[in-house]
Amino acid sequence: MALEEAQTFAAEWVAAWNAHDIEAVPAHSMDDFTMTTPMIRKLLGIPTGTLQGQPAVGDDWRAALRKIPDLPFSIIETTCGVDTVSIYYDAVLGRRAIETFFFYADGKVCKALAATHG
User: Fold this and answer.
1) Residuewise pLDDT in 10s, the chain (118 residues)
2) In whole angstroms, what is the distance from residue 113 CA to residue 74 CA?
3) Residue 39 φ then ψ, to 5°
């Protein structure tokens, strides 16, 4: 993936989150994609921190927006690798996060992993 494509993806992803548009956030994802993040543990109490499939992930995102209704994300930097995009951003609750998205060849996200700091 080229850096310009990665930056476009990151901008669209952050814009959807900041608009609280839960339907647009997973627009680039496969129906069965996997999401792993410490916030799943924190908000949902799921020990693995992992959810599978858009319905489960969508429920997590709705829960996050209910708990943090003024959720703002702000991109610090976007990088890309082989079929991956990593977004370093100001997240919520004074934290910074790095989220890495893994893409299938068709351009759809199959997995996302997040790490937070702060």
Assistant:
1) 899 999 999 999 999 888 888 777 777 788 888 999 887 887 778 899 999 988 888 887 787 788 888 888 999 999 999 999 999 999 887 889 999 999 987 888 999 999 988 5
2) 18
3) -70, -25
Q: What is the CA radius of gyration of the chain?
A: 13
CB-facing half-sphere around the CA of 13: CA atoms within 13 A: 25
Degrees, nearest 5: CA angle 63-18-104: 80
The domain spanning residue 36 has which CATH number?
A: 3.10.450.50
Region for 73 from its dihedrals, namely left if φ exceeds 0, alpha if ψ lies in -120 to 50, beta otherwise: beta
Owning domain of residue 60? 3-117
Instruction: Give CA–CA dist 87/14, Å, rounded.
Output: 9
